[in-house]
Amino acid sequence: MTMRLSSLGRFLAVPLLLAAATARSAPMKTEVQQAPTRRGAAVAPFPPGPNIKWSHAPYEAGDCSLCHVRNDAKNPGPITMGINELCYSCHEEFQGIMARKVKHRPAVEACTNCHNPHNATEKKLLVADMVVLCTNCHKGIKEQMATAKVKHDALTTGERCANCHNPHAANVDRLLIQLPFDLCVNCHSKDGMVAADGRVMTNYKKWLAEHKVWHEPVRAKDCSACHRPHGSQNFRLLVAPYPATFYSPYDPKNYALCFGCHNDKVVSVPETTTLTGFRDGSRNLHYVHVHQERGRTCRACHEVHASNQDHHIREGVPYGPKGWVLKLNYTKLPTGGQCARTCHDTKSYNNRTLTSSSPQP
Question: How many C-beta atoms lie closer than 10 Å to residue 268's C-beta?
Fold first, then answer.
């Protein structure tokens, strides 16, 4: 999952390491194991029972001859034309759907790969539960969903797989019903959404409209650069580790997401005149804040999606489980900047003077 980050180098003059991003984020497995087209018993009517909740209207009406050569429920004979041709003769809208650019192979082969034309236990006459049916072919997705520590509710609520994908055909790659960015933002566009950890989630449609300085992956409309939609081992479905809290002990492994693009030396070396503008002389203030046992994490100062200040500096950060917003009170100055009475008393830095000073606790 290569990220298009042509201008991220402007972010505190941090060099990009695109190759590292690919190396540190394992590729998403979506391989498909295609089953043969179902025939015979798989499309025969199920015997009546409490689990048979859905029935095809012609079958329910006893009109076998609509599809078969004889109007005899016990011996209807073969169907009068090809499976899909027969289905489209009533479901005319699917001729237009199947003319779309990206087609689902099972739908092209035969509607009966996924649907029983008589009756079924599942809505829309599916031959099995939707997620089971999809993951019977998409083994890689099945493994991701089963092993993920962090689940995506989109896979288990509403239309589930069909929340994001059209199972027949689409004009967007991966059979997505919208472009990925639009799909994510339009879903995450409600106030009061709550994550599995109980924290209130951001209304990103509103947030992005109100904050014009977008992080480069967001500006590239590439949510998958940082998030995995089918499940992840990391907080917030991230593709690599990133601290979930305001404070965290410094360990490069905790920042694998950030260091996939940003040079890890921006927080690991105490002195620099080139890696960042957040320095007092050559004293690296990223190092001072982050490189300690109770280090401030990236989220303490930077908004990872969008902000109204250069370098994605936040106006405030949600602090503690209640989400109280701690104001940063950051001001850009001609020779650097200052923070006023946030985590500490007002302090300023001068990045125009290159005299060295040793890091202080």
Answer: 17
